[in-house]
Structures are given as C-alpha cells and as structure tokens.
Amino acid sequence: MEDKQLPVPYFKVNLHYQILACSSPAADLFAASGSWLSFIDEGSLNKARTYISPDHTDQRVELILKTRSAQVLPFEVYQHWDEEECGHLVCISRDKQYKAVAERLERLHENLENGMYEPAVRQAGSARSYLSASHTLNRELCSVLETVKDLLDQVHPSLVEIHQTDYSDIIRQLIDTALKNASREMY
Q1: Measured between alpha carbons, how far is 65 from 63 in angstroms, rounded to an integer?
Q2: Which of 16, 21, 8, 60 is nearest to 38 (CA)?
Q3: Residues 103-114: pLDDT tens digits?
Q4: Spatial CB neighbours of 168, under 8 Å, sequence gap ≥ 6
Q5: Is 3 helix (H, G, I), strand (E, B) or coil?
Q6: What is the pLDDT of residue 85?
Q7: Who contacts 33 (Cβ-Cβ below 8 Å, separation ≥6)?
Q8: 3-class SS of residue 76
Q9: By C-alpha distance, which of 138, 140, 137, 170 is closest to 152?
Q10: Fewer CB within 10 Å: N-end or C-end of the chain?
Q11: Do 9 and 19 form a contact (C-beta atoms < 8 A)?
C-alpha cells in the first residue's frame, strides 16, 4: 500500500523531522509544510523533540497538534523508526473523547446550576422519594467522576514521560476518595 492510500493521518519523516511522505488524510488535516514540527503546538514542542525519536520507537506520545483549520487538538502519535532512521508517525485524534467528557461535565454543571435536582427533592414529600432523587444525583456525580478519572488515565502516560505526575496523582486520589464516599452514601 502506498503512503498516500493509508486511511489514517500518517507521516514519514527523517531525523530532522522533514516530511518525506504523508497519507491523504494527513494532507487534508494538516497544512502543507516541509517540517513535521510545524504542526506541533508550542507547548508540546519540547516533548515532541524529546520523545519522537529512534530512542523511543514503538512508543505512543500524546501531543497537541495544529490542524489546517488552525484548531489545536490532542493527538496520540504512534511512532516506529526503521533501520534507515526514518520515522513512521501515525496521528490519531483524541478530540472526540475530550469533547465527550467536557460535554458531560458541562451538562452536569448546568443541571446543578439550574437547580434541576432541587425540584425533585422538594416535591418528594416523603423520605423515600427524597432518597430516590438523592440516589439519582449521586449516581450521575459518580458517573462524571469516573469519566474524569478515565480522561486522567489517558493523559497520565504523557505526564509520566515528562515527570509531571504530581497533580494527576492528587486528582486521582481526590476522585477515588469522592467515589468511595459516594458509594457509601448510596448503600
């Protein structure tokens, strides 16, 4: 199969990140350029130079890339370097997963802000109805926390690579504590 026919964004680069070939989806997604580094967002540039290399062949690296539409998006870059010191890079967008989490959090925030759960609790009248409404809210909060934890798990390997896991470890501990407390309240 020719490089252009690959069904995913693919680049063949040399050690200096000059683009030697690319797939049609890559050409459609990214603006024409001679250097693969021109697609890397400034905040990910050092990480790309460090971890996209023959020393890290067959490792996945999460980077923020600039697309043709000037939108910056998270990508997982899968790399393999051959004996001719050419890098074969496949760039898979993580945008849909991040957007899904952000949308769920936004909906929950709006629901809480608009008091969507309060009327059910106020109208409940009985302790049983109150507990049912409380249980529903608790389940939704747990679901959102699990989603945030999943997102954190996706970002964590990239943070390990740059030795910056302190905050993610703290966030993970807080989520685990909140989930533990929420499960105790539900049962």
Answers
A1: 6
A2: 16
A3: 666 776 676 666
A4: 152, 155, 156, 159
A5: helix
A6: 94
A7: 19, 39
A8: strand
A9: 170
A10: C
A11: no
The answer to whether 64 and 37 are in contact (CB under 8 A) is no
∠ CA 131-116-119, nearest 5°, is 55
Percent of the chain with pLDDT over 90: 36
The residues near 102 (Cβ < 8 Å, ≥ 6 apart) are none
Domain 3-93 has CATH 2.60.120.10: no
For residue 41, give the H/E element and its range.
none
Strands ordered across the beta sheet of 60-66: 19-22, 10-13, 87-93, 72-81, 60-66
Which two three-digit tokens encode residue 108? 């929950």
Q: What is the mean pLDDT of residues 29-49?
A: 92
Length of the chain: 187
